Amino acid sequence: MITVDEALTRILSTFDALPAETLAVNQTLGRVLASDVIARVTQPPAAVSAMDGYAVRAEDVATVPARLQVVGHLPAGGRYDSALGCGQAVRIFTGAPLPDGADTIVIQEDTERDGESVTVKEAAAAGTYIRPAGLDFRAGDVGVSAGRVVTVRDLGLIAAMNRPWVSVHRRPRVAVLATGDEVVMPGDPIGPSQIVSSNGLALCGLVEACGGEAINLGIAADSADSLRRLSAGAAGADLLVTTGGASVGEHDLIRSVLGEEGLELDFWKIAMRPGKPLMFGNLRGTPMLGLPGNPVSSLVCGLLFVRPILDRLQGLERPAHPTETAVLAEDLGANDRRQDYLRATLEAGKDGRLLARPFPKQDSSMLATLARADALIVRAPHAPPLPAGQLVDLLRFPGSLRSI
To answer: Could you tell me the strand order of the sheet in which 88-92 lies?
Structure first.
C-alpha cells in the first residue's frame, strides 16, 4: 500500500490544464480563466461627479453663503461644452462628467435654489465628491488574473472593462461508472438482496460542483460483457471514475476485465481509511480512477482525489487538501497504519475555539453521518491515543465550490 500523499502525487503528475476556449462573458460564471483579463477602457473615462448637486469652482464657495448663477444642467451621460466661469455653477447628477473649469461638487443638500441662481451654504474644498479619471481601473490594467474562478463580482468587472469575450479552460469531461448486481437506480424495483445506488449520482454531483461535466454511464452488472460495454462510453472523456468492483472478491471485475481491455494499472490500494481499495491507471488513453464501492469511501476519495484532478485540469491552483486545526471534543484511540479520515461535526466551544466532535460510529456504509458531518478529522498513520482538548487537523467539506 502507498500513502495518500504519494498516491496524490502520482495521480496529479498525469494531468495538465486543458486547452482554452473563448466564451461570451455571460457564460463564464464558475469557469477558470485561461489568461488575464485586461481592461480595454478607463473607468471612469473622465472626472465625474460622485453626488447629485452643483459643479462649481472651489474659490467661488470658499466663503459662504455664496450666490452663483446656474448656467447648465448636466445628467449622467451628458456633457457641458463651455468652460465654467467665475461665479457660475452647473446642476450636475451622479456619474456626469465634470465641466471644464469646475474642481469641486457641492451636494444639493447644502444649497438653496432660486430660479436661475443657487445659494451655497457650505464650503467645499477642491476635489470634494469628484471621482477622478481611472479611479476604478485604466485601459491596459489586469482586472482579473488567469487561474481564477470567475465569480459574480468578476462578471461585473469584466463587463465594465468592455471585454465581451473571455478565455477560459474547457470543462473537464468525467465519465462515472457504478458497478454491481446489488445496486439499482433510485425509483427502480429493489430485489430482496439489492440496495439503491447512490455513488454514481453523488460522484456526478461532485464533478459538476467542481466545475466538470459529468457523464453518467449508469450501472454495470457483475459481468464482463456489461462492464466492457458500459466502460466504452468513457472514450473521449478526460477521466473515467468507477465505483465498486475494485476490491479482491470474485465479483470485483474492474482489474481483470478492464485489464483485458488495455487498462495499465499504476497502483492499487492506499494506506487510508475509508478508501483502501483505490486504483489508478490508464484505459486506452483515458486516465481511470477506481473508487471503493462503500458510499462513504467513494465520496471521501472523491473529495481527496477527484476534486484535485479537476482543479489541475482547469488550471486552478489551490491546495489539494487544505487543512486547519480544531480542538478535539472527545477522546480518540490509537490509529493503525492507515491514514484515517473521521467524520465529525464542528461547534463553538465555551472559550470560542472550534471544537471537532467525531461520530462514535465511522462505518463506511453510513451515508447519514457523512451528510451530517462538517469536516473530516485527519489522523496520521500510527497516531497515538489523543485525549479531548488536544488539537487535531481537519479537512472541511466545502460549503460552496464556486463563490459569489
So the answer is: 104-107, 53-56, 88-92, 66-74, 117-120, 111-114
Domains 4-16+171-313 and 48-131 belong to one CATH topology: no
* Burial (Cβ within 10 Å: 0-12, 13-18, ≥19) of residue 141: middle
Please give the pLDDT value at position 246.
60
- Between CA 364 and CA 370, with CA 366 as vertex, the angle to 5 degrees is 95
What span, in angstroms and rounded, lies between the C-alpha atoms of 93 and 69? 17
Domain limits of the chain? 4-16+171-313, 20-43+136-169, 48-131, 323-396
Residue 187 CB coordination number (10 Å) = 7
Whole-number pLDDT of residue 252: 59
Strand partners, 377: 342, 394
pLDDT at position 401:
47
Homologous superfamily (CATH) of 4-16+171-313 is MoaB/Mog-like domain (3.40.980.10)
Q: Which residues of the chain have pLDDT under 70?
A: 245-252, 399-404
Distance CA 390, CA 323 (A): 16
Instruction: Report whether CATH 3.90.105.10 matches the domain 20-43+136-169.
Output: yes
- Measure the N-to-C terminal CA separation of the chain; round to a whole number of Å: 41
**pLDDT at position 205:** 94
> Any long-range contacts for 355-363 (C-beta under 8 Å, 24+ apart)?
355/326, 355/327, 355/328, 355/329, 356/326, 356/327, 356/328, 356/329, 356/392, 356/394, 357/329, 357/330, 358/329, 358/330, 358/332, 362/274, 363/296
Nine-digit cell string for 196: 439503491
* Residue the block writes with cell 472593462: 161
pLDDT tens column, 85-143: 999 999 999 999 999 999 999 999 999 999 999 999 999 999 999 999 999 999 999 99
Q: What is the CATH architecture assignment of 48-131?
A: Beta Complex (2.170)
pLDDT of residue 133: 97
**227/177 Cα distance (integer angstroms):** 9
Q: What is the CATH number of domain 323-396?
A: 2.40.340.10
Cell numbers at residue 159, please?
463587463
How far is the C-alpha of 282 from the C-alpha of 399, rounded, in Å?
Answer: 32
What pLDDT is stored for residue 403 in this prediction?
58
Q: What letter would DSSP give residue 116?
A: T
Nearest to 327 by CA among 350, 300, 304: 350
Peptide linkage before 322 cis (omega within 30 of 0): no
